[in-house]
Design goal:
The chain is mainly α and 280 residues long. Helix content is 80%, strand content 0%. It is globular, with a radius of gyration of 23 Å.
């Protein structure tokens, strides 16, 4: 499987309409982050109505942003010319698809929790029987084996959830997304590609953290030299965070689009290969 990394990184720069959609989503992301910052700022006394408004705004913008990402995935899976969507008469569909995705995710999460309950019980039983040696505090051999297996299982579930999301995004159909056996087979056949994209995602996140640190450092120096660091107003952290987010938000969105496009490419190319094998 040969992923088109160049396409994933350059789609944004091929069309002005795509750029406008990106800017709108960046603005929505910025608003959502400011809302959650307001809700989490200590010492900021707001009327209950303002808190509810900030909470509802955060919820609504996150749903629309999720719908936008799903549209990116849908466009790539269905092999459209550009994976980035536009907002013309589509904000309602983004909201609806985002809501459907929340329902889909809740169903998947409940299923995962139900699967983990027997594992948790098993770990508890083993821990209770063999226990911890009070003198040495040594963990039993059984737990030493089971804990790495649990970590590997968690990694597998993370990849599986990505495949299930791709299945859902293909037609925004919840029942199509909820096919774990099909998703598991697909994951085993394309596990190496998912590892590659995850590696790229880790590198992107490291770059993101470095850039965020640089931006925060520069803003800190500017504010410090301007004599703003001694301000005690509870609004001051929100203002600083807002300035910080202006530079960071487009970067966050762009990197999310790139990884979403790559995961969608894996799903599309994997299914195309499967179709070619069947036809032969």
């Amino acid at each position: 499987m040969k992923l088109d990394y160049t396409k994933a990184f350059k789609d944004l720069f091929t069309n002005s309409d795509l750029k406008s959609g990106f800017l709108i989503t960046s603005l929505l992301t910025f608003v959502s982050l400011i809302c959650i910052t307001i809700l989490n700022t200590k010492g900021l006394s707001l009327p209950l109505g303002m808190k509810l408004l900030a909470g509802l705004t955060y919820f609504a913008t996150c749903i629309i942003i999720s719908g936008y990402y799903l549209e990116v995935m849908n466009n790539e899976i269905n092999n459209k010319l550009n994976s980035l969507p536009i907002y013309e008469n589509k904000i309602g569909s983004y909201f609806v698809n985002g809501l459907k995705y929340i329902l889909f995710s809740l169903i998947v999460m409940i299923a995962i929790i139900l699967l983990l309950i027997p594992v948790a019980i098993l770990l508890g039983v083993i821990g209770g029987i063999s226990g911890l040696t009070h003198a040495s505090h040594a963990i039993s051999p059984a737990l030493i084996i089971l804990i790495p297996l649990l970590i590997l299982f968690s990694i597998f579930v993370g990849f599986l959830f990505q495949v299930l999301t791709s299945q859902f995004a293909e037609n925004f159909n919840i029942s199509q997304g909820l096919k774990p056996i099909k998703a598991t087979k697909f994951l085993f056949n394309n596990f190496g590609s998912y590892l590659k994209v995850t590696g790229i995602q880790i590198i992107i996140n490291i770059v993101y953290l470095i850039i965020c640190s640089i931006i925060s450092f520069i803003i800190g120096i500017i504010l410090g030299s301007a004599g703003f660091t001694g301000i005690k107003s509870p609004m001051f952290p929100i203002i600083v965070e807002s300035i910080d987010l202006v530079g960071i938000t487009p970067l966050v969105l762009y990197m999310g689009i790139v990884t979403t496009d790559l995961y969608a490419q894996i799903y599309r190319l994997g299914n195309e290969q499967k179709t070619e094998i069947i036809s032969e």
